[in-house]
Amino acid sequence: MGYTIDTTKNQQVNLAPGTVYEEVIQNLWFLYSSIEYDIPLDRALGLNAAYIDKPLETAKALITTDLYDKTEEYEPRAEIVNIDFAVDYVRGVLKPIVEVEVYGEYGNEEDTE
User: Fold this and answer.
1) Helix, strand or coil for residue 5?
2) Which CATH number goes with the domain that contains 21?
3) Which tens digit of pLDDT belongs to each residue from 26-69?
4) pTM of the full predicted structure?
5) Residues 6+ apart with CB under 8 A from 93
6) 3-state DSSP call for residue 110?
7) Is 84 strand, coil or helix?
8) Of 9, 13, 59, 92, nearest to 47 (Cα)?
9) Which domain holds residue 72?
10) Does some domain include residue 113?
């Protein structure tokens, strides 16, 4: 089942997701919206900020590589299908919009524990 994770929009946190699908999507949104070293108990969680102050195409390449690496490490139940970016040239903000395919039992509550 495919889903687009848009980090330009806020997402409500569900502390008890009912399905694997909801859990994976929420995990990925949090992963893609965070920066490394900002999460106290797992400093490697989040995207590497090495792309800041780089030319746009270089920043996109660095983020793309990091998205694939972090998705594989932190959420192996998902696979990236497509990556796009929302760019705010005035504020200098580059945010990923990632289309993923989620694998797992979507209605099985046992998988979320």
Assistant:
1) strand
2) 3.10.450
3) 999 999 999 999 989 889 899 998 888 888 899 999 999 999 99
4) 0.82
5) 86, 87
6) helix
7) strand
8) 59
9) 2-108
10) no
